[in-house]
Write a structure and sequence with these properties.
two-stranded antiparallel sheet; single chain; 11 helices
């Protein structure tokens, strides 16, 4: 069943869009990521213009993340205090990111630079996550289960402006969480992602949060930053395609419930390896598309 997308100006199979949304919903529930790092490149692959994919992908992230968050609230695995600090930085970063996106669009370089952002960030994050996850998995097999949280004294413990986060069992400076939120907000606006693929590793390895509260807390922050990003794109760029968003939302909400159940059955080390593998696969496909000669060398555009 083909549907016409008025903003993207192309026709796409409706069941394909539902499937993409469902896939991202499963990821949201399992890993605590909004899934934008996957849904936005997949929209590129089926012919959606990058500017529309970025803006509409951010909208879809809100629904799938909210659905997954509801399941985590029932298990009481959300640190609202930490999430609020991350959110404060995320909203500022999102506003700055939309400004950068508009500037790139005016220069006519937004399509190329969005793809380059994906290749660079996904490659670095995916490689670091895979190395660390495989090490943790080996340790868990030879020495028993790896503790989710170690009382390691790092940068977050030495900086000023400390705050106690009881749900995470931490007493750290608010500066690192604010900076993490700021970086995620910028990426959310430029790349159409929730930023979970950056935030989840940062919360585990930089802030030393327990794995059990990382997923729910990440989803809490992603919801509000993605909603704010969508609003800014809709009002400044007019690139949010409602028809596209609707089908992605339906699939995402359903998939998130299945993802949460799957995530509860897997060990933390296994979840990290699976997420790292997904990030690297998407990165590889985007890199190939940038390097290979396209079948159609020329296109007609209107200014």
């Amino acid at each position: 069943m083909q549907i016409y997308l008025p903003i993207a100006e192309i026709s796409v199979n409706a069941f394909l869009l539902l499937g993409l949304g469902g896939m991202v919903g499963v990821l949201s529930g399992m890993f605590g990521v909004g899934g934008g790092f996957l849904i936005t490149p997949l929209l590129f692959f089926i012919g959606i213009p990058p500017a529309v994919a970025v803006a509409t992908g951010a909208n879809q992230i809100v629904a799938s993340s909210f659905s997954a968050l509801m399941a985590h609230l029932k298990r009481k695995t959300v640190d609202f205090k930490m999430g609020s600090v991350l959110l404060a930085g995320g909203l500022v970063g999102s506003g700055f990111g939309v400004w950068i996106f508009n500037l790139l669009k005016q220069l006519g370089q937004v399509d190329l630079l969005v793809n380059l952002f994906y290749v660079v960030f996904l490659g670095i994050i995916g490689a670091l996550m895979m190395v660390e996850s495989l090490r943790a998995l080996r340790r868990s097999r030879t020495q028993g289960p790896v503790k989710a949280h170690r009382k390691t004294r790092g940068l977050a413990q030495t900086l000023p402006l400390k705050m106690r986060f009881r749900a995470s069992g931490l007493y750290i400076s608010v500066i690192p969480p604010l900076l993490v939120g700021l970086a995620v907000g910028v990426l959310a606006a430029i790349m159409g992602v929730g930023g979970g693929f950056i935030m989840v590793p940062a919360m585990i390895y930089l802030l030393h949060m327990p794995t059990k509260v990382v997923v729910g807390t990440s989803l809490f922050q992603i919801i509000f930053v993605s909603a704010f990003t969508t609003m800014l794109h809709a009002t400044t760029n007019h690139t949010v395609d409602i028809a596209l968003a609707l089908f992605l939302l339906i699939g995402g909400v359903i998939g998130a419930q299945f993802g949460t159940q799957l995530g509860a059955r897997l060990r933390a080390e296994q979840l990290r390896v699976a997420l790292a593998a997904l990030v690297l696969i998407v990165c590889g496909k985007l890199a190939l598309d940038l390097l290979l000669t396209p079948s159609d060398l020329y296109s007609i555009g209107a200014s």
